[in-house]
Amino acid sequence: MKILMLSWEYPPRVVGGISRVVHDLSHKLISDGHEVTVVTYKDGNVPYFEDDGGVNVYRVDNFMISPNNFIDWVMQLNFNMIAKVGEIINEKGKFDVIHAHDWLTAYAGKTLKFAYNIPLVSTIHATEAGRNSGIRSEMQKYINDTEWMLTYESSEVIVNSNYMKNELQRLFGLPYDKINVVPNGVNLNLFNGIEKDYDFRRRFAMDNEKIILFMGRLVYEKGVQNLIAAMPKILQHYNDSKLIIAGKGGMIDQLRDEVNNLGLGSKVYFTGYLGSKDVQRMYKCADVAVFPSTYEPFGIVALEAMLSGTPVVVSDIGGLNEIVDHGVTGMKSYAGNPNSLADSILALLFDPNLCDTVSKNAIVKVKEQYNWSKISEDTHWAYQKAICETVADKQARQIAQEEARKQIKKSNEITNLLSFKKSRQAYA
What is the rounded CA–CA span in Å between residue 22 and residue 148? Predict the structure, then answer.
């Protein structure tokens, strides 16, 4: 197949989880014998075109005209994506399928679908209603409506968890069989050759301190505020522990203020953004990795932590609830509940045998259920369904048009006959 991926982020640009999903899925599809082209946003000093291990990556600028707001910025990006794909098709021919990722590429996906008669498949990684616990502002309503439009125009829709499948059915009323659950995966070789680096660890905590790690964007739905609120209880029972918060986001100043108000300045460390190698080393150094999200369609970071051998604590929400089995492959806590979060973390800090058991079970589960080979096969199946539906729709339209032409011809013949009879009668 010739596959076109539309995504607003692709390495080295990493805003959220979409970047890694598109990267890893594209490379697995390449290894399966397909041809993959990614069209994405050019951020920083990266080339406009790159052969990334067989994946053809085209990057586009936004307009030189400054947008009024984020919505305008996204729309301008879509215009340039459409223009770039047009150039590629003129040079190399049509694609077999378009795969659009999230609402940020919805208008490019829809336009290209109709312009070139190419089946459209979309992945909804998260919804605006889910991220904000509802729709309140005009911008949120616009994004929500754009998400609906993308799912409506797509022949097949992919989501990463059963939680998300139910959410899309509830929000957009999609047919059950149109939504394909294909979980995200993780590179199983991610931690090959990565060992615990004690010099690296000492940059963040003393040797006697247990590291409680949060890795992710510093936004409300990731729940890091609840993890900070859990620290007083954790320190009361296990004083030799330290919270490391790795990531960046709009809440950082608010979170720093919360830490200072609780008097936790010496027990909480903000690392800021970490590069991929430092992320790998950080997972290996951590004693517990915590993902306390209040909304999480899937949770790739939890898979990475599990693969690294670090025991995890997650909220019982969304995709995280499906990934982790409590007490078997990790620990769960009630979403938004700092007290429950502290209990699950303390259970691991006080029980090395439990840590060892859940870590080993987690590695097995990730390798069996979240490998890219199976994910690539399931995604390819969604592509095939979309192509078959498009062909079937075309054939059905042709049959309907032919039937309509026959009916019109028959109607015209009857009309002509009646007119002839009336003429004869009038003459008579």
Answer: 21
